[in-house]
Amino acid sequence: MMTDQGSSFVATRNACKMCTPLGACLAFSGVEGCLPFLHGSQGCSTYIRRYLISHFREPMDIASSNFDEQSAIFGGQNNLSIGLRHVLESYRPKAVGIATTCLSETIGDDVSMFLNEFRSEQAGNADVSIPPLIHASTPSYHGSHFDGYTEAVAAIVDTLAEGGKRQADLVNILPGIVSPADLRHLREIVSDFGLTPVLTPDYSERLDGPPWQQYQRIPDGGTPIDMIRRCGTAAASIQLGDTPTGRTAAGILADKFDVPAMVLPMPIGVRASDQWFAALEKVSGRPTPKQHADERGRLVDSYIDAHKYIFGKRAIVFGDEDFVVSTVGFLAEIGIQTVLCGSGGQSGTLKESIDRIEMGPSEPPRVIEGVDFEDLTEAADDVHADLMIGHSKGYKLARHLGIPLVRIGLPVHDRFGASRMLHVGYRGTQQLFDRIVNTLLEQRQDISEMGYTYL
Ligand code: SF4
User: Fold this and answer.
1) Quick check: 6 pLDDT over 70?
2) pLDDT tens-digit profile of 351-393?
3) Which of 290, 312, 371, 392 has the greatest count of CB atoms below 10 A from its CB?
């Protein structure tokens, strides 16, 4: 079946994605003591810092090799060496995560070779100890922030993981781009099965931590490097999100160390969460703990209670592909029909993944890959949707259509508490479900001439 690729307009207008190294910087922030470093122009790191700070509301240092006109013409090796020396001396990082920008990729800088030469040059320098230098190739004209994140997680594991004796209680969790609250919840669930999670990356503390007495250049938190080294000995890898393309951390661990890989959809909704819990039952050999089974029961009960408020509503869903797929599946199980969905990502698998969802009596939605908000606006005008579900960049479209926007994913920079938004598992689905139901009730109340007080 042909995939709907949006209009034939040659430029992106109001992108439904963010830049590729942004995702890499987020992933590098989830490794303990790791400093994200952009090889390219300073403006790129400023843009990425601003975007991530407005979502997480925490400070974020991203170093830059600070290209100028000369480096743009003659190459950025000298800038990279100077920048790395500077950050190693002043930040003393446990690792440096180096992501390339559009400019360094366009001029063809061979960063792997530059890093090898840097290591050789500094080998005799007693003042500088060289931590792992993790390189992710992230040209932003090819892919989205999600691809940059996936590539950076793959690079982290490829650089650091080691093999060894299989550890039956160790499980690699590769969570996709989720909130700090989601990361904490995933860790809690895995621990409740008696397993030790290696959650890579884990930015839950670094990007949602308590206030400091003194500024920390590299905040506490992140997956310990010693734990990532043990990834090759784990009983299994569970990758959440089944839309990544290119190399993945789960694939690398399977190829290099024979760690079995389980690739699941993002656990949003009862069915997708059931798959996540079933995977943990299989790895641990234990049944789902009672507290989680009880949460599932309460969630199903709330589906029944709220059915009359939401059944037959029509939704537009957009954002990262893994979120879109699971959200569409979740809406189908609660009786909301997705009429249009789109993502700025271009994995080529979005439509196929949506087509696999059990839609019940509903028509499948129109699916547009590689979409921008101009394309989405043109498509949305005819679908008579009741609500939109996606990140904050969809606000203008929601306003244009006069329908509410339920914010999920990243970025959420026009509401407070993005770090505490829970999406995953039975508990996260419950919170999302309540938000959707209440949003529709609020809208009904607002447009009613009667001013209902009892719904
Ligand atoms: S130039 Fe490329 S890497 Fe830099 S901010 Fe823009 S899209 Fe991102």
Assistant:
1) no
2) 999 999 998 878 899 999 999 999 999 999 989 999 999 999 9
3) 371
Contact 36, 203 (CB under 8 A): no
Instruction: Report d(CA 280, CA 238) in Å as an integer.
Output: 9
pLDDT at 5 over 70: no
Q: Whose CA is nearest to atom 2 of ligand 1?
A: 102
Q: Which of 18, 45, 101, 141 is the pocket-test mutation for ligand 1 (most atoms within 8 Å of CB)?
A: 101
CA of 335 to the centre of ligand 1 (A): 40
Atom of ligand 1 at shortest range from CA of 22: 8
349: exposed, middle or buried (C-beta count within 10 Å: 0-12, 13-18, 19+)?
A: middle
Q: Which of 102, 141, 372 is the pocket-test mutation for ligand 1 (most atoms within 8 Å of CB)?
A: 102
Domains in the chain: ranges and CATH: 20-158 (3.40.50.1980), 161-284 (3.40.50.1980), 290-447 (3.40.50.1980)
What sign does the CA torsion over 342, 345, 351, 356 have?
negative
Q: What is the pLDDT of residues 263-294, one digit of tens each?
A: 999 999 999 999 999 999 999 999 999 999 99
Q: What is the mean pLDDT of the chain?
A: 94
Ramachandran angles phi, psi of 293, nearest 5°: -60, -35
* Beta-sheet strand order (sheet of 167-174): 196-199, 167-174, 234-240, 261-264
3-state helix, strand, coil split of the chain in percent (to 5) is 45, 15, 40
**Residue tagged 């600070």 (tokens):** 66
Task: Give the integer Cα–Cα distance in Å for 99 and 117.
Answer: 17
* Helical segments of 260-384, H only: 270-284, 290-310, 321-334, 350-355, 373-380
Six-digit token string for 327: 């959200």
Probe target for ligand 1 pocket from 12, 17, 18, 19, with the most ligand atoms within 8 Å of CB:
19
